[in-house]
Amino acid sequence: MDHVAQHTTVTPGYASTKEAQLKRLRRIEGQVRGLHRMVEEDTYCIDVLTQVSAVTRALQAVSMGLLEEHLRHCVVDAARESDEAGQAKIDEAMAAITRLVRS
After folding, report:
1. Is this model's pTM higher than 0.85 or not?
2. Is 1's pLDDT higher than 70?
3. How far apart are alpha carbons 14 and 36 in whole angstroms?
4. Which residue, of 43, 64, 73, 98, is most buried by count of CB atoms within 10 Å of its CB?
5. Helices 18-40/45-69 angle, 10° precision
């Protein structure tokens, strides 16, 4: 079972890019709906796999954007707070990176 960390920060690191992230996620949502239609319509396997690859790349781009914002804001702010807080945020980020690399 994954541990879900409790965060005291009210404003997420991606606050300045929130609208752009939401736009990307809406686009991905549309791509996934398209995948659903493709399977319903018995689309050729390779064409479906090509679309799956596109969705996967799009999700990876969102992940990298969120990770970058986390590092630039949450980790930097924690490091300014104290060495211990900074190290905790680095550990948290490394765990997230490990999950992303394994997926």
Report:
1. no
2. no
3. 30
4. 73
5. 160
